[in-house]
Write a structure and sequence with these properties.
Elements lengths: L18 H5 L15 E7 L5 E7 L1 H5 L3 E6 L21 E2 L5 E7 L2 H10 L1 E6 L27 E3 L2 H6 L3 E9 L11 E7 L2 E6 L4 H12 L6 E4 L15 H9 L8 E4 L2 H7 L6 E9 L5 E13 L10 H5 L5 E11 L12 H4 L1 H14 L3 H7 L17 H12 L12 E2 L2 E13 L7 E6 L5 E4 L9 H13 L6 E4 L16 H20 L8 E5 L12 E13 L5 E11 L6 H20 L5 E2 L4 E2 L17 E6 L23 H13 L16
Parallel strand pairs: 1-12, 10-11, 14-15, 19-20, 23-26
Antiparallel strand pairs: 1-5, 2-4, 2-6, 3-5, 7-15, 8-13, 9-10, 9-12, 13-14, 16-17, 17-22, 18-19, 18-21, 22-23, 24-25
Helix pairs in contact: 5-6, 10-11, 10-16, 13-14, 15-16
The structure holds dioxothiomolybdenum(VI) ion.
Dioxothiomolybdenum(VI) ion (MOS) binds next to loops.
Amino acid sequence: MSNLLPASAIGTAFERLDGELKVTGTAPYAYEQPVDHPVYLYPVLSTIARGAVERVDTADAEAIEGVLTVLTAETAPRLADASDRELAVLQDTTVGYRGQIVAAILAETPEIARQAADTVRVSYAEEPFAAQLRADDPALYAPEELNAGTPTDSSQGNADAAFDTAALKIEQTYSTPAEHNNPLEPHATVAQWDGSVLTLWDSTQGVHAVKGTLAQVLGLEQEQVRVIAPHVGGGFGSKGMPHVHVVMAALAAQCTDGRPVKFPVSRQQMYSLTSHRTPTIQRIRLGAADDGRLTSMSLDIVEHTSRIKEFAEQTPAPFRMMYASPNRSTTTRLAPLDIPVPSWMRAPGECPGMFGPEVAMDELAAAAGLDPIELRRRNEPAADPETGKPWSSRHLMECFDLGAERFGWDRRVTRPRSVQQDGWLVGLGTASAVYPFMRQPANTARISYEQDGIYSVQIGAADIGTGAWTSLTQIAADALRVPANRIRLGIGDTRFPAASVAGGSSGTASWGGTIIAAAKAFRADHGEHPSPGATTEADAPEDAEAQNFALYSFGAHFAEVHISADTGEIRVARMLGVFSAGRIINPRTARSQFLGGMTMGLGMALHEQSVLDPRFGIFVNHDLAEYHVPTSADVLDMDAVWIEDRDEHAGPLGARGIGEIGIVGSAAAIANAAYNASGIRVRDLPLTPDKFLA
Ligand code: MOS
């Protein structure tokens, strides 16, 4: 790590402190952790979607030299708590989805393990199953609540009556497909038992979350589990809670006489084992007066979940708070299917939940004869429409105004399909972005004075590629009033104090606020000139005031789309995001976060869809050859800027979080630009070329 750090910290565009380790390939990821004499695990996955394993023939596998053990539901060790059916691996013979682990090979090399897995023959008693999301599925049900404790339904006034009498009406159904988190580093766990103590090197967004879950499932005391994850190659939510492979590795390592077990989940296996984003069907009704002011807003959502474990996205959340309307209603219903378990993917809820509504607003603008930005201006709510709380800091229209100027929004033509350049239809589009501020209270930081001016700052946080190593060092430096090169940060290890998961865009504000509190306490305890060994631990500061405000980050996306008039090929020539996310800690890593989110939004708009074959219950395009994410050639002129303010209600740091807002609304902006270019309104993602060949 460089010693040549500038003396000021927050607000400085430090290069990543872990950058050199990353680019030289020496940052240790989970699979690469050097352990002695490892055993390699390769799973056998079910080829039916629902039923039971009747027989597992392991004789051929066991005869292969280098195979140590084959674990099945008959031979695997028992869990203390098998109530979470996603995690209860090899605890019984039932099969709840295709691609579930039904056996596991332990071998001397990864190649032998994989070869042996191919020789295992499994016979099943198959049962009828369902694997197709349908809005009219009779099995649809209302979950008790949605992710993050969000209420399932909401209603104010009378949305139906107000819609019936509205001067302007938009009534449409929008849909988003299932998607898979595809972090560059696939999921991997290395597990080793030393007596009664389990060590896991895991690719995770939260070492303490893994420790807590594994202790519970295995029936261990918290002190018996250590989890280590200094560097993580992305997660996007799929590493936010431990999935079945972590339990599998821990169980397998009980059968190896203390040898560590390495379980690298392959890209293909990730499509059934490590979660995905649910598809959504969004029925929207907007009613407005002639001047575009909303009088009625309704959103009825249908999504899928796995029958073996419920996950319900908070998809209606942004619709509930985004615009003013006296009459409002939202519902969410789930179809229980015999499919892999869905979970978090970057901005779960907010991201799909802003696609339909933001396209519908574009449709309403056209119906009202208004510029889409003007429509949003006319529907700005003075306070949070759902709770009535005042906004802590709502700068949505400033984002639109700055973006409009920088993007050249005045060049947008109102009439669709009226600009052509060299055979390409050209159009501009825009959409709002929003993401809630979620500061997590369960955080503790420890600060110790080492010697020679060096402070050790420890918190069990995670850097999943986002820049936490760097930004937390900056925050600690300012909090202790020392140059950043005096900070020795420790994260990614449960030996450091408990910290929340890197999720919900909450990491920097939560961990950083706690580091600030710990620095204050440290100075109070030990003064400006501490003795070596001086140590203070402190918890996250109280956050009572935040309860009185609606805390959200806002943004405005702009897109210029080119569509080939002959082939329907679609390119996003330009994208601009303007964000208001509170205080920005590091402009360099922040810009990367915004651009990363927008790039993922570009993928959502044009490429990403996990195709579930209802005849087999399998995601058929389960690799990066057939599941497409944007490459460099897809990302053309993309920029992100921000309007900075210090949100006084967002804790001591004044930062609200930036990890997810970049993806929210970006696909809608692209779809709206595609309409402006082509005159074709596509309401189901992704925007593939065939949809523009009307
Ligand atoms: Mo993010 S999907 O909250 O890890």
